[in-house]
Protein backbone atom coordinates (compact mmCIF):
# COMPACT_ATOMS: atom_id res chain seq x y z
CA UNK A 1 0.00 0.00 0.00
CA UNK A 2 1.31 3.47 -0.93
CA UNK A 3 2.03 5.86 1.93
CA UNK A 4 -0.28 8.48 0.41
CA UNK A 5 -3.27 6.12 0.57
CA UNK A 6 -4.21 7.55 3.97
CA UNK A 7 -4.80 10.94 2.31
CA UNK A 8 -6.89 9.48 -0.54
CA UNK A 9 -8.57 6.25 0.69
CA UNK A 10 -10.97 6.37 -2.29
CA UNK A 11 -8.19 5.93 -4.89
CA UNK A 12 -7.29 2.26 -5.30
CA UNK A 13 -5.04 0.54 -7.86
CA UNK A 14 -7.92 0.21 -10.35
CA UNK A 15 -8.52 3.97 -10.33
CA UNK A 16 -7.16 5.72 -13.47
CA UNK A 17 -5.66 8.46 -11.23
CA UNK A 18 -3.61 5.96 -9.18
CA UNK A 19 -0.35 6.15 -11.18
CA UNK A 20 -0.65 9.89 -11.65
CA UNK A 21 -1.09 10.49 -7.91
CA UNK A 22 1.84 8.14 -7.18
CA UNK A 23 4.03 10.17 -9.53
CA UNK A 24 2.96 13.50 -8.01
CA UNK A 25 3.88 12.31 -4.50
CA UNK A 26 7.14 10.69 -5.64
CA UNK A 27 8.27 13.87 -7.39
CA UNK A 28 7.33 15.96 -4.36
CA UNK A 29 9.27 13.70 -1.96
CA UNK A 30 12.32 13.77 -4.25
CA UNK A 31 12.09 17.57 -4.49
CA UNK A 32 11.77 17.93 -0.70
CA UNK A 33 14.77 15.65 0.01
CA UNK A 34 16.89 17.11 -2.81
CA UNK A 35 16.35 20.78 -1.93
CA UNK A 36 16.80 20.18 1.81
CA UNK A 37 20.11 18.33 1.31
CA UNK A 38 21.56 20.50 -1.50
CA UNK A 39 20.46 23.74 0.22
CA UNK A 40 22.18 22.71 3.45
CA UNK A 41 25.34 21.62 1.56
CA UNK A 42 25.41 24.94 -0.31
CA UNK A 43 25.40 26.84 2.99
CA UNK A 44 27.71 24.63 5.05
CA UNK A 45 30.14 23.15 2.53
CA UNK A 46 30.12 25.28 -0.62
CA UNK A 47 29.52 28.71 0.97
CA UNK A 48 26.98 29.60 -1.71
CA UNK A 49 24.07 31.18 0.21
CA UNK A 50 22.58 32.76 -2.96
CA UNK A 51 22.12 29.30 -4.50
CA UNK A 52 20.92 27.91 -1.16
CA UNK A 53 18.22 30.58 -1.20
CA UNK A 54 16.77 29.10 -4.41
CA UNK A 55 17.08 25.57 -2.98
CA UNK A 56 15.06 26.54 0.10
CA UNK A 57 12.56 28.35 -2.11
CA UNK A 58 12.09 25.07 -4.04
CA UNK A 59 11.76 23.21 -0.74
CA UNK A 60 9.02 25.55 0.51
CA UNK A 61 7.22 25.26 -2.86
CA UNK A 62 7.32 21.44 -2.75
CA UNK A 63 6.02 21.45 0.86
CA UNK A 64 3.15 23.78 -0.08
CA UNK A 65 2.12 21.55 -3.02
CA UNK A 66 2.40 18.46 -0.77
CA UNK A 67 0.13 20.04 1.82
CA UNK A 68 -2.31 21.18 -0.88
CA UNK A 69 -2.66 17.76 -2.53
CA UNK A 70 -2.71 15.75 0.73
CA UNK A 71 -5.62 17.87 1.98
CA UNK A 72 -7.80 16.94 -0.96
CA UNK A 73 -6.62 19.64 -3.38
CA UNK A 74 -7.43 19.26 -7.06
CA UNK A 75 -5.00 16.83 -8.80
CA UNK A 76 -5.03 18.89 -12.00
CA UNK A 77 -3.86 21.98 -10.13
CA UNK A 78 -1.26 19.88 -8.26
CA UNK A 79 -0.01 18.39 -11.57
CA UNK A 80 0.44 21.87 -13.06
CA UNK A 81 2.18 23.07 -9.89
CA UNK A 82 4.59 20.11 -10.04
CA UNK A 83 5.40 20.67 -13.73
CA UNK A 84 5.87 24.43 -13.27
CA UNK A 85 8.18 23.72 -10.29
CA UNK A 86 10.26 21.20 -12.28
CA UNK A 87 10.47 23.63 -15.22
CA UNK A 88 11.49 26.49 -12.88
CA UNK A 89 14.22 24.39 -11.24
CA UNK A 90 15.57 23.23 -14.64
CA UNK A 91 15.59 26.74 -16.08
CA UNK A 92 17.26 28.15 -12.95
CA UNK A 93 19.91 25.43 -13.26
CA UNK A 94 20.52 26.15 -16.96
CA UNK A 95 20.83 29.89 -16.26
CA UNK A 96 23.08 29.49 -13.21
CA UNK A 97 25.35 27.12 -15.13
CA UNK A 98 25.17 29.26 -18.31
CA UNK A 99 24.64 26.13 -20.37
CA UNK A 100 27.67 24.38 -18.89
CA UNK A 101 27.93 21.16 -16.90
CA UNK A 102 25.44 19.30 -19.09
CA UNK A 103 22.70 21.47 -17.59
CA UNK A 104 20.81 21.47 -20.93
CA UNK A 105 20.70 17.69 -20.89
CA UNK A 106 18.57 17.86 -17.76
CA UNK A 107 15.91 19.81 -19.63
CA UNK A 108 15.09 16.70 -21.67
CA UNK A 109 13.63 15.03 -18.55
CA UNK A 110 10.70 17.47 -18.66
CA UNK A 111 8.64 15.94 -21.57
CA UNK A 112 7.96 12.55 -19.90
CA UNK A 113 6.69 14.23 -16.73
CA UNK A 114 4.70 16.83 -18.66
CA UNK A 115 2.99 14.24 -20.92
CA UNK A 116 2.17 11.89 -18.07
CA UNK A 117 0.81 14.51 -15.68
CA UNK A 118 -0.79 16.97 -18.11
CA UNK A 119 -1.87 14.72 -21.00
CA UNK A 120 -1.17 14.95 -24.74
CA UNK A 121 -2.24 18.53 -25.45
CA UNK A 122 -0.86 20.42 -22.49
CA UNK A 123 2.17 18.11 -22.29
CA UNK A 124 3.06 19.03 -25.90
CA UNK A 125 2.67 22.77 -25.28
CA UNK A 126 4.66 22.89 -22.05
CA UNK A 127 7.48 20.73 -23.48
CA UNK A 128 7.63 22.75 -26.71
CA UNK A 129 7.73 26.12 -24.90
CA UNK A 130 10.53 25.07 -22.52
CA UNK A 131 12.59 23.36 -25.22
CA UNK A 132 12.23 26.26 -27.69
CA UNK A 133 13.18 28.70 -24.92
CA UNK A 134 16.29 26.64 -24.05
CA UNK A 135 17.31 26.43 -27.73
CA UNK A 136 16.97 30.22 -28.01
CA UNK A 137 18.97 30.70 -24.77
CA UNK A 138 21.67 28.33 -26.04
CA UNK A 139 21.82 30.31 -29.30
CA UNK A 140 22.34 33.55 -27.32
CA UNK A 141 25.17 31.92 -25.33
CA UNK A 142 26.84 30.78 -28.54
CA UNK A 143 26.50 34.23 -30.17
CA UNK A 144 27.94 36.02 -27.14
CA UNK A 145 30.55 33.31 -26.73
CA UNK A 146 29.74 33.24 -23.02
CA UNK A 147 30.50 29.57 -22.57
CA UNK A 148 33.50 27.75 -23.94
CA UNK A 149 32.91 24.58 -26.02
CA UNK A 150 29.35 25.56 -26.91
CA UNK A 151 28.95 25.77 -30.66
CA UNK A 152 26.25 25.42 -33.32
CA UNK A 153 26.83 21.64 -33.24
CA UNK A 154 25.69 21.56 -29.60
CA UNK A 155 22.63 23.64 -30.49
CA UNK A 156 21.60 21.36 -33.38
CA UNK A 157 22.10 18.25 -31.25
CA UNK A 158 20.03 19.76 -28.46
CA UNK A 159 17.20 20.66 -30.87
CA UNK A 160 17.24 17.18 -32.44
CA UNK A 161 17.18 15.36 -29.12
CA UNK A 162 14.50 17.69 -27.73
CA UNK A 163 12.28 17.30 -30.82
CA UNK A 164 12.68 13.51 -30.79
CA UNK A 165 11.75 13.51 -27.08
CA UNK A 166 8.52 15.44 -27.69
CA UNK A 167 7.47 13.29 -30.66
CA UNK A 168 8.31 10.03 -28.90
CA UNK A 169 6.46 10.91 -25.73
CA UNK A 170 3.51 12.30 -27.65
CA UNK A 171 3.32 9.04 -29.62
CA UNK A 172 3.64 7.01 -26.42
CA UNK A 173 0.98 9.05 -24.63
CA UNK A 174 -1.37 8.72 -27.65
CA UNK A 175 -1.03 4.92 -27.69
CA UNK A 176 -1.41 4.72 -23.91
CA UNK A 177 -4.55 6.90 -23.96
CA UNK A 178 -6.11 4.95 -26.86
CA UNK A 179 -5.40 1.59 -25.18
CA UNK A 180 -6.85 2.91 -21.93
CA UNK A 181 -10.01 4.25 -23.64
CA UNK A 182 -10.46 0.93 -25.45
CA UNK A 183 -10.05 -0.99 -22.20
CA UNK A 184 -12.53 1.26 -20.44
CA UNK A 185 -15.05 0.76 -23.25
CA UNK A 186 -14.63 -3.03 -23.27
CA UNK A 187 -15.05 -3.20 -19.50
CA UNK A 188 -18.52 -1.66 -19.66
CA UNK A 189 -19.81 -3.05 -22.98
CA UNK A 190 -21.71 -6.24 -23.82
CA UNK A 191 -19.59 -7.91 -26.53
CA UNK A 192 -22.53 -9.08 -28.69
CA UNK A 193 -24.93 -6.14 -28.71
CA UNK A 194 -22.45 -3.33 -27.86
CA UNK A 195 -24.87 -1.86 -25.32
CA UNK A 196 -23.73 -1.51 -21.66
CA UNK A 197 -23.13 -4.66 -19.63
CA UNK A 198 -24.76 -5.50 -16.33
CA UNK A 199 -21.89 -4.19 -14.20
CA UNK A 200 -22.15 -0.76 -15.79
CA UNK A 201 -25.95 -0.75 -15.50
CA UNK A 202 -25.62 -1.48 -11.76
CA UNK A 203 -23.18 1.41 -11.30
CA UNK A 204 -25.22 3.77 -13.47
CA UNK A 205 -28.43 2.99 -11.57
CA UNK A 206 -26.69 3.62 -8.23
CA UNK A 207 -25.28 6.97 -9.31
CA UNK A 208 -28.53 8.10 -11.00
CA UNK A 209 -30.55 7.26 -7.88
CA UNK A 210 -28.09 9.27 -5.75
CA UNK A 211 -28.34 12.13 -8.26
CA UNK A 212 -32.15 11.91 -8.24
CA UNK A 213 -32.13 12.30 -4.45
CA UNK A 214 -29.92 15.38 -4.70
CA UNK A 215 -31.97 17.04 -7.45
CA UNK A 216 -35.39 15.83 -6.15
CA UNK A 217 -36.27 14.05 -9.35
CA UNK A 218 -37.42 10.60 -10.37
CA UNK A 219 -35.55 7.79 -12.13
CA UNK A 220 -37.43 5.11 -14.05
CA UNK A 221 -36.32 1.76 -15.33
CA UNK A 222 -37.72 -0.42 -18.10
CA UNK A 223 -36.92 -4.13 -17.94
CA UNK A 224 -37.45 -5.53 -21.43
CA UNK A 225 -37.66 -9.18 -22.46
CA UNK A 226 -38.06 -10.64 -25.96
CA UNK A 227 -41.23 -12.69 -26.33
CA UNK A 228 -40.87 -16.34 -27.27
CA UNK A 229 -37.23 -15.86 -28.14
CA UNK A 230 -36.53 -19.54 -27.74
CA UNK A 231 -38.88 -20.14 -30.69
CA UNK A 232 -36.86 -17.63 -32.80
CA UNK A 233 -33.66 -19.51 -32.03
CA UNK A 234 -35.29 -22.85 -32.68
CA UNK A 235 -36.81 -21.74 -36.00
CA UNK A 236 -34.01 -19.59 -37.49
CA UNK A 237 -30.92 -20.74 -35.59
CA UNK A 238 -28.71 -19.12 -32.96
CA UNK A 239 -26.84 -16.90 -35.43
CA UNK A 240 -30.02 -15.21 -36.61
CA UNK A 241 -31.08 -15.07 -32.92
CA UNK A 242 -27.90 -13.09 -32.21
CA UNK A 243 -28.58 -10.71 -35.09
CA UNK A 244 -32.11 -10.17 -33.78
CA UNK A 245 -30.70 -9.13 -30.39
CA UNK A 246 -28.21 -6.76 -32.03
CA UNK A 247 -30.89 -5.08 -34.16
CA UNK A 248 -33.27 -4.96 -31.20
CA UNK A 249 -30.68 -2.98 -29.22
CA UNK A 250 -30.22 -0.57 -32.12
CA UNK A 251 -33.98 0.06 -32.25
CA UNK A 252 -34.13 0.62 -28.47
CA UNK A 253 -31.17 3.03 -28.62
CA UNK A 254 -32.76 4.93 -31.53
CA UNK A 255 -36.02 5.19 -29.58
CA UNK A 256 -34.80 6.42 -26.18
CA UNK A 257 -33.11 9.71 -25.29
CA UNK A 258 -29.34 10.27 -25.37
CA UNK A 259 -29.35 10.58 -21.60
CA UNK A 260 -30.98 7.16 -21.10
CA UNK A 261 -28.69 4.17 -20.51
CA UNK A 262 -29.44 0.98 -22.45
CA UNK A 263 -27.80 -2.27 -21.38
CA UNK A 264 -28.05 -6.05 -21.41
CA UNK A 265 -29.36 -7.40 -18.14
CA UNK A 266 -28.77 -11.00 -19.17
CA UNK A 267 -29.73 -13.40 -22.00
CA UNK A 268 -32.58 -11.79 -23.93
CA UNK A 269 -33.38 -9.28 -21.15
CA UNK A 270 -32.43 -5.61 -21.45
CA UNK A 271 -32.63 -2.68 -19.06
CA UNK A 272 -33.22 0.97 -19.94
CA UNK A 273 -32.49 3.50 -17.19
CA UNK A 274 -34.25 6.82 -17.71
CA UNK A 275 -33.06 9.67 -15.48
CA UNK A 276 -35.43 12.51 -14.68
CA UNK A 277 -38.44 10.42 -15.79
CA UNK A 278 -41.63 9.75 -13.83
CA UNK A 279 -43.81 6.65 -14.05
CA UNK A 280 -46.18 8.09 -16.66
CA UNK A 281 -43.35 9.19 -18.98
CA UNK A 282 -41.67 5.81 -18.51
CA UNK A 283 -44.83 4.00 -19.63
CA UNK A 284 -45.00 6.26 -22.72
CA UNK A 285 -41.33 5.51 -23.53
CA UNK A 286 -41.89 1.80 -23.08
CA UNK A 287 -44.94 1.88 -25.32
CA UNK A 288 -42.92 3.62 -28.04
CA UNK A 289 -40.22 0.93 -27.77
CA UNK A 290 -42.83 -1.83 -28.09
CA UNK A 291 -44.35 -0.17 -31.16
CA UNK A 292 -41.01 0.48 -32.89
CA UNK A 293 -39.86 -3.10 -32.37
CA UNK A 294 -43.18 -4.52 -33.52
CA UNK A 295 -43.09 -2.32 -36.65
CA UNK A 296 -39.59 -3.42 -37.63
CA UNK A 297 -38.48 -6.69 -39.20
CA UNK A 298 -35.46 -6.85 -36.89
CA UNK A 299 -33.73 -9.38 -39.11
CA UNK A 300 -34.90 -10.10 -42.69
CA UNK A 301 -38.45 -11.41 -42.24
CA UNK A 302 -38.09 -12.14 -38.53
CA UNK A 303 -40.59 -10.16 -36.49
CA UNK A 304 -40.49 -10.09 -32.73
CA UNK A 305 -42.36 -8.46 -29.89
CA UNK A 306 -41.18 -7.49 -26.42
CA UNK A 307 -42.72 -7.27 -22.97
CA UNK A 308 -41.67 -4.57 -20.52
CA UNK A 309 -41.87 -4.17 -16.75
CA UNK A 310 -41.48 -0.56 -15.56
CA UNK A 311 -40.63 0.82 -12.13
CA UNK A 312 -39.89 4.30 -10.81
CA UNK A 313 -37.76 5.60 -7.99
CA UNK A 314 -38.94 8.94 -6.58
CA UNK A 315 -36.49 11.23 -4.80
CA UNK A 316 -36.38 10.66 -1.04
CA UNK A 317 -38.24 7.34 -1.25
CA UNK A 318 -37.14 4.64 1.14
CA UNK A 319 -37.07 1.99 -1.61
CA UNK A 320 -33.74 0.29 -2.12
CA UNK A 321 -32.33 -0.23 -5.61
CA UNK A 322 -33.02 -3.97 -5.22
CA UNK A 323 -36.65 -3.14 -4.47
CA UNK A 324 -37.02 -1.10 -7.70
CA UNK A 325 -35.41 -3.87 -9.72
CA UNK A 326 -37.63 -6.56 -8.25
CA UNK A 327 -40.65 -4.32 -8.82
CA UNK A 328 -39.70 -4.05 -12.54
CA UNK A 329 -39.19 -7.82 -12.60
CA UNK A 330 -42.64 -8.48 -11.12
CA UNK A 331 -44.23 -6.09 -13.64
CA UNK A 332 -42.41 -7.85 -16.46
CA UNK A 333 -43.81 -11.14 -15.20
CA UNK A 334 -47.31 -9.61 -15.20
CA UNK A 335 -46.81 -8.32 -18.77
CA UNK A 336 -45.83 -11.85 -19.86
CA UNK A 337 -48.77 -13.37 -18.02
CA UNK A 338 -51.11 -10.73 -19.48
CA UNK A 339 -50.38 -11.93 -23.03
CA UNK A 340 -46.91 -10.38 -23.81
CA UNK A 341 -46.25 -7.49 -26.26
CA UNK A 342 -47.20 -4.95 -23.58
CA UNK A 343 -45.86 -2.83 -20.73
CA UNK A 344 -46.89 -2.99 -17.07
CA UNK A 345 -45.87 -0.33 -14.53
CA UNK A 346 -46.75 0.61 -10.94
CA UNK A 347 -45.85 -1.19 -7.74
N1 LIG B 1 -29.23 -16.33 -30.06
C1 LIG B 1 -29.10 -16.06 -28.75
N2 LIG B 1 -30.01 -16.58 -27.91
C2 LIG B 1 -29.91 -16.30 -26.60
C3 LIG B 1 -28.89 -15.47 -26.11
N3 LIG B 1 -29.08 -15.35 -24.77
C4 LIG B 1 -30.18 -16.08 -24.44
N4 LIG B 1 -30.70 -16.66 -25.54
C5 LIG B 1 -31.83 -17.55 -25.67
O1 LIG B 1 -33.01 -16.90 -25.26
C6 LIG B 1 -33.97 -17.90 -24.98
C7 LIG B 1 -34.78 -17.51 -23.80
O2 LIG B 1 -35.79 -18.43 -23.66
P1 LIG B 1 -36.88 -18.40 -22.53
O3 LIG B 1 -36.23 -17.91 -21.25
O4 LIG B 1 -37.57 -19.72 -22.50
O5 LIG B 1 -37.86 -17.25 -22.93
P2 LIG B 1 -38.70 -17.02 -24.25
O6 LIG B 1 -38.63 -18.13 -25.21
O7 LIG B 1 -38.26 -15.67 -24.78
O8 LIG B 1 -40.15 -16.93 -23.69
P3 LIG B 1 -40.84 -15.76 -22.90
O9 LIG B 1 -39.75 -14.90 -22.31
O10 LIG B 1 -41.66 -16.42 -21.85
O11 LIG B 1 -41.65 -14.98 -23.87
C8 LIG B 1 -33.18 -19.21 -24.76
O12 LIG B 1 -33.43 -20.08 -25.82
C9 LIG B 1 -31.74 -18.77 -24.79
O13 LIG B 1 -30.88 -19.73 -25.37
C10 LIG B 1 -27.94 -14.96 -27.03
O14 LIG B 1 -27.00 -14.24 -26.70
N5 LIG B 1 -28.09 -15.28 -28.34
UniProtKB/TrEMBL annotation:
Gene Ontology terms: biological process: cell adhesion involved in single-species biofilm formation; negative regulation of bacterial-type flagellum-dependent cell motility
Swiss-Prot/TrEMBL keywords: Membrane, Transmembrane, Transmembrane helix
Record SUPFAM superfamilies: Nucleotide cyclase
Record's catalysed reaction(s): 2 GTP = 3',3'-c-di-GMP + 2 diphosphate
Signal peptide range: none
Cofactor or coenzyme needed: Mg(2+)
Protein name: diguanylate cyclase
Protein species of origin: Pseudidiomarina maritima
Amino acid sequence: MKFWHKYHPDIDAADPRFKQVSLIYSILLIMIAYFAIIGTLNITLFYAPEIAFFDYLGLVLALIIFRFVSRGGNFKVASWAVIVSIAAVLLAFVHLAEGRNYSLMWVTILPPFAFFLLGRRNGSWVSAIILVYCSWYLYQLIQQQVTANLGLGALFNFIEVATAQVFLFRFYENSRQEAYDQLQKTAITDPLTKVYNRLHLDNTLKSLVAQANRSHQAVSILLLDVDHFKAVNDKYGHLIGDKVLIRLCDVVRETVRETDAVGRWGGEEFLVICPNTDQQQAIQFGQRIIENIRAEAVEKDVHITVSIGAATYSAGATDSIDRILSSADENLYRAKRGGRNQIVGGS
